[in-house]
Backbone:
């Protein structure tokens, strides 16, 4: 994982790591280094840590590798918590990495990031391109704190250039924890499967009381309207969820309304 300071400088945490993960003592990292190609990437590409951890064909018993995986996970949680502990009140913004910079959705993301920053919120995104970049760009241009929580994936090119604080995680679940722990609410721009994953995890956490006073705004009625209709006509109608669960989120196309909803809900 890499971290950055408030000036946007990226720092390798391997240069800082202490305790369990002293340089040269981690057999998991050593194995990955042995498999690294000329460009420093493993044969499986970026994101191998999650794959190795979850591989059902690996050894089923407790092994030395498992112990080191646990140590790496613990270290990644600690590094993330340390890097983000000084943030002002923040909102996480999710959305598609495939959103084109010349699209109306990208422009809306920039306006949203700017509006949140002007209202005093730090803006946290997944640090990638598309909608995430748009929100980071708007926040940075407005003088706010712009944060990117990236993930090692074979098809991602690293953090976008508008992140004042940047972290790059090995493990999805560590990254997700940081999104929730350091946010007071979520805004969900149009997106695909990854965005849906983040949305429904947040809804479940609020529904089950794992987090409280956590507003969730779906931004883009044309994109999200069909999903909301399906929740009403199928999930609620069949008793799979309560009608009260519809109050867990808000649907809007207006930046000012989204910012006002977040501020109002978190002050209750």
Residues:
């Amino acid at each position: 994982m890499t971290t950055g300071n408030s000036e946007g400088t990226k720092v390798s945490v391997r240069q800082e790591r202490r305790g369990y993960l002293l340089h040269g003592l981690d057999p998991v990292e050593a194995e990955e280094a042995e498999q690294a190609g000329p460009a420093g990437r493993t044969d499986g590409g970026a994101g191998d840590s999650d794959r190795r951890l979850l591989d059902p064909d690996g050894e089923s018993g407790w092994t030395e590798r498992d112990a080191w995986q646990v140590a790496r996970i613990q270290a990644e949680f600690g590094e993330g918590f340390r890097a983000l502990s000084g943030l002002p009140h923040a909102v996480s913004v999710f959305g598609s990495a495939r959103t084109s910079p010349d699209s109306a959705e990208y422009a809306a993301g920039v306006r949203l990031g700017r509006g949140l920053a002007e209202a005093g919120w730090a803006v946290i995104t997944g640090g990638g391109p598309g909608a995430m970049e748009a929100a980071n760009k708007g926040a940075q241009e407005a003088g706010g704190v712009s944060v990117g929580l990236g993930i090692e994936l074979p098809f991602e090119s690293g953090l976008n250039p508008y992140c004042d604080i940047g972290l790059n995680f090995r493990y999805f679940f560590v990254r997700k924890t940081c999104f929730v722990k350091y946010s007071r609410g979520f805004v969900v721009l149009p997106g695909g499967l990854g965005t849906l994953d983040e949305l429904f995890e947040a809804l479940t956490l609020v529904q089950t009381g794992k987090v409280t006073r956590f507003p969730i705004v779906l931004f883009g009625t044309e994109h999200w309207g069909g999903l909301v209709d399906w929740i009403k006509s199928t999930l609620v109608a069949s008793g799979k969820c309560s009608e009260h669960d519809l109050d867990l989120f808000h649907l809007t196309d207006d930046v000012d309304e989204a910012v006002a909803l977040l501020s109002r809900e978190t002050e209750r």
About this structure: The mean pLDDT is 84. Strands lie at 2-4, 10-12, 90-94, 122-125, 146-151, 165-169, 186-188, 216-219, 250-252. The chain has two domains: 13-81, 88-267.
